[in-house]
Amino acid sequence: MEVNIGKDESIDDLQLNGLQLIQKEQGFRFGVDAVLLSHFANVKKKHRVIDLCTGTGIVSFLVYGKYKPQEVIGLEIQDDMVEMANRSSKLNDTSDIVKFVQGDLKDKALLDSLGRFDVVTVNPPYKLNNAGILNPNDKLAIARHEIMCNLEDVIVSARRLLKDNGRMFIVHRPERLADIFGLMRKYKIEPKRVRLVQPNTKKAPNIVLVEGQRDGGTFLKWEETLYVYDDNGNYSEEINRIYGRM
Fold it and tell me: Where are the alpha helices (DSSP H) in 11-161?
């Protein structure tokens, strides 16, 4: 389907069922975090899914392409990102299933209007608001720093959006793991599954994936570490499988 593409935008092939994504050539572009989150999420065809802090919509499209759920809604506070994501959905002819909404995840009335979901995914801003030099008008800063929302805001909104026993899937940095566990339990989302991601066997983890269940029982499964590269500097077999290269 034909859509307008800006001079500063590119169309990227997601190499998944012909899906494409419009991105800014010089702006925020998706990375391995989004791919790993969509792979880690446990989504069924009958599910309603909401992706918080959706940005360009990358996780929403990957979840749709992998699992074909009933509906995927992406929530994003930056209106230009929402407009671009909806153009991507039109480009993919998925506008009836993959939809994007502009709004603040701290807006309780907005969340209630969206209904309840089986699955919440989120790739939130990682950096604390006092970490590093910030430009409050910089869209990259909004994507990377807790300017518009913090980790507690994300987990509070997930609690509100999830159905009973619904699941939350979050990708973050390992140094925030204690915060993630503490806030999940504070708002009765029980941590159920954790996976660390390391660049290779010799470097410390730099990504963590966590699954939580709304009002779930206390049992935590720690999965084996995922290595992005092998010791020869090549992508690991598992990463190649995740990216569909094998």
Answer: 32-40, 58-67, 79-91, 108-114, 139-144, 151-161
